[in-house]
Amino acid sequence: MTNSFTHRTLLGKSVHRYGLSASYGIDEAGVREAVDLGVNYFFWNPRNKHITNVVKDVVAKDRERFVLATGPTLGYFGGSVRRAAERALRKSGSDYIDVFQVFWAGKMSALTEAVVGELVKLREEGKVRRIGVSIHDRKRAAKLAAEGPLDFFMIRYNAAHPGAEVDIFPHLPEKKPLIAAYTATCWTKLLKPPKGWQGPAATAGDCFRFCLTNSNVDLVISAPKTAAQLRENLTALERGPLAEDEMAHMRALGKAVHG
User: Fold this and answer.
1) How confident is the model at residue 52 (pLDDT cuts 50, 70, 90)?
2) What's the CATH number where 148 sits?
3) Range of 105's domain?
4) Beta-carbon neighbour count of residue 227 at 10 Å?
């Protein structure tokens, strides 16, 4: 069932705010189950056969239902960025990519004039619809969002690292870029009680709900290991945003995890 918490209109499509990555083990059957359960945002690595098979078999045949996000493994040169986009188009069987991003600016990519220029050209040509970056430098992310031309940011945001609430979200321009949160569980650290913590740790569902309770976050990227984890996460999101007491618990836990 569609509701305002689990879905948002993005790129002219009704998009489930739980975005799926297959980076941590979910198999092809699990990806197909995700489709059956309504997941339609795929963070896609063309080298991953499990999700690629589904992209070719399902996404390409019902293209306007799905959002496909990908990018070059390394993004240091304009030419390599374009070649990665062209490969993704061929491999997906689609004539456009919804979100094309360079990864981890400063580590796996460089936002040089040539790289950004090539991203802009790809968008102008209609080969991609949104261009952006995954980035840990929050203040740089805010500056890039304000200056343009990037219109998608994948940022670290979780209860242990809530700094985007100060460094990014208040500074977003009126025409807000699309914001995807990742590392929602803080690399599973929020799922285990930290030393000295009295009380329960979080569930993965709690972590995803924490991210999506912030209205600035359009979606959260998840990489479940199994279909069972996928189902648990989606069921948790049906509970809606965190209540005040749940949010207070998550913030306290996050502070303890961060140390």
Assistant:
1) very high
2) 3.20.20.100
3) 7-258
4) 17
Token digits of residue 121? 């050209």
Domain-embedded: residue 1: no
In a domain, 106, yes or no: yes
Structural domain total, the chain: 1
Q: Are 102 and 115 in contact (CB under 8 A)?
A: yes
CA dihedral 90, 93, 96, 101 (to 10 degrees): -60
Amino acid sitting at position 95: D
Q: Summarize pLDDT for 237-257 with one digit per residue, the tens.
A: 999 999 999 999 999 999 999
Averaged over 119-143, what is the pLDDT?
Answer: 96
Residues recorded for the chain: 259
Output the pLDDT for position 1. 38
176 in any annotated domain = yes
Pairing outcome for strands 18-21 and 13-16: unpaired
